[in-house]
Amino acid sequence: MPPCLKPPVIVWFRDDQRLADNPALEYAIATGHPIVCVYIYDSKPQNVRAYGEATRWWLAKSLQALNTELVALGGELTLLCGSESQSIKALAIAIGAIEVCWNRRYLAAQRETDRAIKMALKTRSIEVSTFNGYLLREPWTVATRNGRPFKIFSAYWRAACYEYSPQAPRLKPQQINFFPVPKNIAQVAPLRTLSTITIQCLAPNFSKRSFKIWKCGEQAGWIQLNDFLTNSLSYYASGRDFPAMQVTSQLSPYLRFGNLSVRQVWHALRSIASSVSTASGSIDKFLYELGWREFSYYLLYHYGTLHQVNFKRQFDAMPWRNADTELHAWRCGRTGYPLVDAGMRELYHTGWIHNRVRMVTASFLVKHLLINWREGESWFWDRLVDADEASNPANWQWVAGSGADAAPYFRIFNPILQSEKFDMKATYVRRWVPELSRLPNECIHAPWLAQSGQLASASVKLGQNYPWPIVLHQQARKRALMAIEHIR
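Structure tokens predicted for Deoxyribodipyrimidine photo-lyase:
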């Protein structure tokens, strides 16, 4: 360490890849010590799922954006590759750090890792300070009157919101006193000096898909938020279930990686509530959705690995089917049900899928095909840019009926009626299933019921350029209801 410098403070970025409203960064700057900003990428983490293909792509782009922001302030992001425990300790010792700061995580294995790191650093007389930079309310701050965790969302959300308002988000720092990390320290490689090959190892090649619709990072998150507030919010409550309307926020990946904080989103909505009275219903509805995200992390903290274990253990006896051919057809958007296929193709091409269609596609896999929800959750984990350890499995268990406050298993979406109701003019279906685009509205939702002349004039050849249904709705519904009787 150069003799003229104070010992540095390390800010360990995780799922908080932003400069504004970042409590760990704000605290570190306030110490008056020079700052080292670091991210650790572990491609083979222990007891934690590795990033999926799509989240790995977003991560690389997000880190590049974060580094650009730091470079503009005169610093850079230090990227370490390997074990979190070994990497952060080695860096702290090598540069003579006096303290390490981070924003907290909530998966049990991550919490255990953080505890072990804290103990290891303190044995070296290196202080550790941690903060809430990811949730409105951390899981241990909300409980029932007898001190137990909630299991019902509505009750949880009432308690979480009762006489509570999150602190106002903090502004982006205008200057940061950076500590110059020596280039000869083992395992330390600033992001701006990494080769293109290394970046590509983090981010798969999506050149043949439509990931170009996404701009990643903090500035892109603010653009997306402002666009939603300006152009879509007023229509959110009435139009959020209609995929062709495109009025959902698409903020989920920015929240997932912390390009935006949930406090920033909350206060942005609240700040316009009084001036946009026509949007009050939409604001309340959107805040309710933020509440479901909070509840998902609450469940993750209190009840463990949601992607592995049924919240309702009676579902352990569910007679799931092994049907690889049907599973493959579902993944590829070749089920013969246009709305389901449109959703699965949107997922493949963009890394995202409309919320109403997420429910329809998930219900189809679990109930029409009677395939274990874990198969779908795993596929979404790999393909969604917003996949996380809480919301993704919590949503899948909700659809399957095995989760907390879940939809009853006997609630089986009819994919034909869902298509007719929420994509009446088939705008969404025609976009993602173009081989059906010339069919008239009255038969595009169930093309196998169309007359031969209608199919011929639309150049649709069932079983050739578009599949027959892989299962009939009424038969699938009957089979699903028999399965739930098996575990009652």
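Residues 186-197 have pLDDT under 50 and may be disordered.
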